[in-house]
Amino acid sequence: MLTNLLHDLHIARIVVAENRAEMHRLTNELQASEGYRALEAKAAEAATIVENKVAEITALSLAAFAADANKHPHPAIEIKEFVSVTTPDTDAAREWCFENFRPALALVLKTWEKAVRDGNIPVNLAISTKEPHVQIASDLSKHLV
Predict the structure, then answer these.
(1) FRET label pair with 60: which of 15, 44, 94, 145, CA 20 to 30 Å apart?
(2) What is the C-alpha to C-alpha distance for residues 11 and 80, in angstroms, rounded to an integer?
(3) Are residues 26 and 11 in the same domain?
(4) How far is it, in rounded angstroms, from Cα 129 to Cα 123?
(5) pLDDT value at residue 39
(6) 66 lies in a domain?
(7) Within the chain, which residues score under 50 in pLDDT?
(8) Are residues 22 and 79 in the same domain?
(9) Element (DSSP H or E) covering residue 34
């Protein structure tokens, strides 16, 4: 039963590989064509124009906002303000949080799960279980006779 299924899987993988190779060949053929290269150049030129226009509009809009705090310099434009936070001394911030703001001390799940797997966490807090997972060899040709 497993041998038959592995054989079918092997055949299906070969078909996928052949299809991808043909797609790659056709893509390369298309990209090598003169029409494609011309269109690619036009698209790159248009993208540069878009980037320049966006930069110019952004600069003018920010200048207008700086001058009069108008968040709508044009009906198609809205200025949004985002607040960013920088913490220069994370150790001091963590110590302060232990005493004053416990909700800011988030559990790092990756570290927690490793400690659980290593047996460093009491079993009443977390349990580590093993689950079997099937791994099928990528190259089945050497396993099928």
Answers:
(1) 44
(2) 55
(3) yes
(4) 11
(5) 98
(6) yes
(7) none
(8) yes
(9) helix 34-68
